[in-house]
Write a structure and sequence with these properties.
By secondary structure, the protein is α+β, with helices and mostly antiparallel strands. The protein has a single domain, classed as Aminopeptidase (3-Layer(aba) Sandwich). 24% of the residues lie in helices and 30% in strands. The longest helix is centred in the middle third of the chain and has 16 residues, at 89-104.
Length: 219
């Protein structure tokens, strides 16, 4: 385990979390729905942040698990780490946050998160953390702003009332949905997808580059 056992994970203010995410997340953006932020500290300094909150389409996502109450699940909607932490730190930090949620918010029965294989990766960290793959779909929601060089999601464009959004170039790729059942008595209402399906669909990515699951073992 090495130095990963020395990492301290604790709740931090949104201001500190958002500043870190803007610097270290590939999108450079925060999710406004985030309401619970965990900081990952090593050698007394902050080197990682995980932000949880409500899903954007809460009504639809809640149906992924049978008999889910309105406030019985959360989305891990931002995760950012710098290069200081040792290997496998992300999966250990996720495990700690889930334990803290289970202890301090026992009404939360499951967690959902999405891997953006279009820009980043296909969810290696989630698979290592015991999440279940429940969806692989083509990402049709991202377009490239030719002026600012930003990647904008369709919902962001709607809220910002961007008129030329549909004229911009689409980004090709996939989005993968992962679910972690904190309450093991919960029953999924969606199919479990084997990880091998990622390669079958050509959805594998690592740090923005196409890669197979086998190739990733050597990264």
């Amino acid at each position: 385990m090495g130095r990963t056992k020395d990492i301290i994970v604790k709740v931090i203010p949104s201001r500190i979390a958002n500043e870190f995410i803007k610097r270290h997340h590939y999108s450079g953006k925060v999710v406004q729905n985030s309401c619970l932020h965990f900081g990952c500290f090593l050698d007394s300094n902050l080197h990682g942040v995980m932000s949880y909150g409500a899903s954007m389409d809460k009504n639809k996502v809640s149906k992924c698990v049978l008999n889910t109450g309105w406030n019985e699940f959360m989305e891990l909607n931002r995760m950012a780490f710098d290069e200081y932490l040792p290997k496998n730190s992300e999966s250990r930090c996720i495990a700690i946050t889930i334990k803290l949620i289970k202890k301090n918010a026992p009404h939360i029965k499951w967690v959902v998160s999405y891997a953006d294989a279009t820009q980043s990766g296909d969810g290696t960290i989630y698979r290592a953390s015991g999440f279940i793959l429940t969806q692989i779909k083509k990402n049709t929601q991202l377009r490239f702003n030719p002026e600012t060089k930003e990647v904008i999601q369709s919902m962001q464009a709607f809220h910002k009332m961007i008129k030329d959004y549909n004229k911009w170039d689409k980004l090709e790729g996939y989005q993968l949905r992962y679910i972690y059942l904190i309450d093991k008595s919960c029953k999924l209402n969606v199919p479990i997808i084997p990880f091998s399906k990622i390669d079958e669909m050509g959805a594998g990515m690592y740090k923005g580059e196409k890669v197979t699951l086998e190739e990733r073992k050597f990264k």
